[in-house]
User: Fold these one by one.
Assistant:
Number 1:
Amino acid sequence: MDRIVGIDLGTTNSLVAFMQGETPVVIPGDDGLNLLPSVVALDANNQPVVGNAARNSLIETPERAVYSIKRLMGRGVEDIQEELKLFPFRLAEDMQAGEVLRITLGEKTFTPPEISALILRQLKRSAERFFGGPVTKAVITVPAYFNDAQRQATKDAGRIAGLEVLRLVNEPTAASLAYGLDKKQNGIVAVYDLGGGTFDISILKLHDGIFEVIATNGDTHLGGDDIDNLLITIALDDIRGDLGLDLRHNAEAVQAIRKAVIDAKIALSSQASVKLDVELPGGKHYQREITREHYEQLIQPVIDRTVGPCKQAMKDAGLKPEQIDEVVLVGGSTRIPKVRALVKELFRREPHTDLNPDEVVALGAAVQANILGGGSEATENMLLLDVTPLSLGIEVAGGVTDKIILRNSTIPASATQFYTTQVDGQTNVAIHVLQGERELATDCRSLARFDLKGIPPMAAGIPRVEVKFLIDANGILHVSAREQRSGKEAEIQVQPSYGLTDEQVEGMILDSFDNAEEDFRRRQLIEARSETATILGALEKGKKSAAWGQLTTDEKKQIAKMEKALAAVNAEEDYPAIRKAIDALNQGTMRLAELMMDTAVSTALKGKTMDETDLGEGPTAPHPMAKAEFE
Amino acid sequence: MRAAHFCESCGKVQPPVPVDYFSFFGLPPKLNLDVATLEKDFYDLSRKLHPDLNASTGSEEQEWSLEQSSMLNDAYRTLKNPLKRTAYLLHLEGVELEEQSKSATEQARATGKIKKQIVPPDLLEEVFELNMQLEELRMNKKTGEDDPALIAEIGKQKQTLETKHEALLQELQTYWKAWDALIDRGQAGSPATSEERAQVRDKMVDVLNRRNYIRNLVRDVNEAMEN
């Protein structure tokens, strides 16, 4: 069976997880950490770096780095005016109206899906290192309140990264899967998910392993980022007032302040007060004491914005707070005590925090990946029934939205509409599809314009074109049409209002320098060669040690032979051959390693400390890349 | 008899057959139904038809699973809600309910057409009175005048309307009974005449139209009070 991983592609951090036997586990990155900061930068050679490495670049070369790219996924330039004021996103200068956003990093430009793809690729690599083989299939989580364009952009990012996205799962729902795994109980659960850039509330009914979402709501522009931006603005104002320095356009200084306020924010979740201290350009320091009380007053308006969606979700579910059995907290921002207090007040109960709010979504994605892959004992009988967060409508006469699939409908969901022509011989009909709750089309989100083509020419009003709108289990819309009188499949031309066309995505896949199998092999080869270098280096040291003398001539000959074989095969492109030669040499130097170990121990026993003894690389040297690296 | 959505022996999803929502669940077209049983059937069928559980099958079966499960969800959503269920049954009977929705109102406003509005005769007087009061309230809001007596009076009217709204649901249920009796009779071998069907049907249409009308009225009141 193919390995399917679960990925949480977050605003602030991203993670990859998979189901190890009965439990989902997070796969660490090559730095050994579970969280990969969702930061992408270009290094001096224009090569992309992702994660902690890129985070340093945010302060040193801010014009070559980008964070919180999730805020731009599936959005148009007119949607992100607020973002542009608060985030250092640099749009490409040659951007045309109606074009997919492009962000400048150094001298290059990238679309948001391409930047997200770089993050996904990094996670893919971590998983491949973990499994020792290619990973090509994934479940990726998205905020429940993501619209069609944002979902499509996420799916595109997966494709660009060389991943087949088997399912997009809503983040709060994924979290409930992780929680439900060991509880397996029935009842009503509310998941309150306040992350770095998005807020979701989902209310689920758990029934013998079925996780049925009954209502969901949220705000895809609300999260920890907003708190950071608020604190940054206050700091910048302070600095301008007290020190007469206007740093608003100094990217390095803003990033230094951002780092400091984030640290302060985190500290204030456990401390009563914190001291901000930032060194400013010119050597001056900005210092300020922030008390928890003051901080809570400041952020109140931000966290209060979660109240409306929560109430709406309860109303849509037809439930009162007393009827909700459990509340689960997800997302790093739910560590803030004031947020917890708000949730407690809203739902009138103590929320659950047993699972790490940063990891629970990725763990749930791994559970869903397991279900999709055919399931296991742990996930037996588990099934997720999710809903579409926003109503789907079509524009009718007068610019009014006619809703055809209402929000909170279980997906997959469909609706059928009939169209006819208004002029004799008319062969095209245009359909404008919208998403949102408002009555007027201009207040809703334009998803796409569909052009029905190839309608057989008939008198006006005679053709009867059946158009089927289907929202799949990913929450993505599909449209098909048929002219009923002729039975002819009508051709549909889609013009997505936002987002990449299929051709563009294809192009990006081809452009990407790391693509599935081929690249995996190349990387395997590079890793094997570095292993060769290490083992040969260790052997050189071994030869100089006292232990070498204890080997028989025959043993030494054998080792020399294997060493030569490895050196020869290492120059070629054959990974399995190199691997075999490395293993052989490892095996052949086992006794040498043991002897070195004995020498080390006896030296220590003679009263010398280990530090004083020249151990070279020590007893582990001939086995530098033990296979149990991640166990 | 329920359509064969999946193979009874191997569990494989079968190609969808176009059926109405009642038949999808193997139900007769009756209006009183046990929602708990419907929910159980919905869960059982979801476990067979949902795309997540058919993700490792061939592409054809995945396509069927997507279509079958969307139909299952559409059918469940429609049948579990008493009003949607009634409207759907009426739709099967060839009746489309009077468009009283807000989008129809907006559309009529935008295109300058007069929307078909049927004021239930027994409400004529009250509606006239209420509309006058709402107009007064809007004027007051514009001029900043405060008339607590008027607001209290409108509030009282609103409550009366809400009580009526509730009572209409009860009335509807008596016609459900009448309708189901006709279906039962048909299954017992003596089908209802088309006149008998039309009689019950028209009563239901009337109740639903009145109910929608009141609902819109309440919404207008809420809007006027809020703004």
Note: Chain B touches chain A at residues 43, 46-47, 50-53, 55-56, 66-67, 69-71, 73-74, 76-77, 102-103, 106-111 (CB under 8 Å).
Number 2:
Amino acid sequence: MTADIDWAALAVFVFFFALVTVLGFAAAHWRRPKTLAHLDEWGLGGRQFGTWITWFLIGGDIYTAYTMIAVPALVYAVGAYGFFAVPYTILVYPFVFAVMPLLWKVAKDNNYVTAGDVVYGRYGCRPLELAVALTGVIATMPYIALQLVGMEAVIEALGIKGELPLVAAFLILALYTYSSGLRAPALIAFVKDTMIYIVVLAAVVLVPYKLGGYGAVFEAAGAAFKAKGSGGLLLAPAQYASYVSVALGSALALFMYPHALTGILACRSADTIRKNAILLPAYSIVLALVALMGLMGHAAGLKLTNNNEVVPLLFKILFPGWFAGFAFAAIAIGALVPAAIMSIGAANLFTRNFWKAYINPDVTHAGEAAVAKIASLAVKAGALLVILFLPTQFALDLQLLGGIWILQIFPAVIFGLYTGWFRAYGLLLGWAAGILCGSWLVWLNNFKPLHTLQAGSASITLYSGLLALAVNIAVAILVTAVLGRAARRDGKFARAG
Amino acid sequence: MRLVWLLLFVPLAAVAWVPFYNRTAPQLSGFPFFYWYQLLWVPITSFLTYIVYRKTRDDS
């Protein structure tokens, strides 16, 4: 502990953290289920969340603490390019509106809890199911770890050294997720999102006011990029294609992640999802405004050792201690909600597509819930160990790869909703080709997710995940064409037990 | 398949054409065009989705 702890900030922070801890445990009794010993109840909150709960839940789930720290950090570092988060979240909701109600209905009718269930029910192919489930779990692990990075950033800003607070926070999170399941993050999301809206509203009004208006913010940031000789307020022409392709690829990938899909499957009806596709963009406005805080960092003349400090430091120097504490609590709680849902999503995959598929096919509903609860603990322990014992760069690289990998399950999960044409082994080989191609491109480009295609003197730089997806789909079509279209179970999904 | 579904592709067209909005002028209360144009497309997309919702609500 050092002398520069701001006690007002710390008190407010601890108060809100304690509040959500109580909520987390109380959530087990919220909208009382007959029993929590059923995966539909523990892992999907009973599939009964209506429009408003879903809005808070999915909003709290996909606009994570890491997003609130890392997007402004990227904007601070490179300027306009970091703003890709905005077109990304513009493109994602029309996709959700058109596709996710279909997926929800198939899952509801056939008792599916995971993307692996959907794929197995559609194609009856265990290897393809395993590929989808494994990709989901592996892509989620570093994502959980990065929530810890977000939490670490604000705990450090409070002036607290050491890793003990982080471990304690995660332990509490693990325990109430264990006992309350998806109901815990759903209830906490109300608090978290309300706090985030207050914080962002205050920041976007007061920070520019203190820094001389938005005009001054953009001017100062532009001057800083010019002085630095890299980045800028506008994109360079060479960045156009990568800007759009990263946005599009990320938009297609987002709802392949287990945590996002869990939020969808927990909805009460297909209409709930459609309404949310209209209402969730409110969070995108918040995200865009938070992204601008990266530019405000330049206007405030911050000197950073790590770009992730830009948001915490802005609050620290521009706001009174108690409000900074409130903002930090919002971000830390913003890490808890997605981390809980991610671990639940990964635990559901493990239970349905590994335990039930290979270890105990006759597992009862209560048995499934018990396995999932243990798995959720294991997943969080794994993420914590990664952050404590491996360099953060490892989690960042893995997260980058994870985004490319998760996009490769898109054909297997989505195409079957529309057509019975594809063969399971076509999709499986396509998946394998996509994973290999994507990983190779990332390795080739020194762990940057962009690859430049050259054709004579013309060149175009695109998101590697999207290139890998193109290879994936091409292989799936080719193999299916060679094998001949599937004869069996045309357009039908098989019920899961 | 109803034509109104095509509205969902309009946002893609709006953000895919980067040279159109990668510029400073016209500014809006200090925001360069690049920033307020994309920010504006968030509510426009939401509104377009709402139209599709209203028009297709009673289908199937």
Note: Residues 222 and 266 of chain A are 44 Å apart (CA to CA).
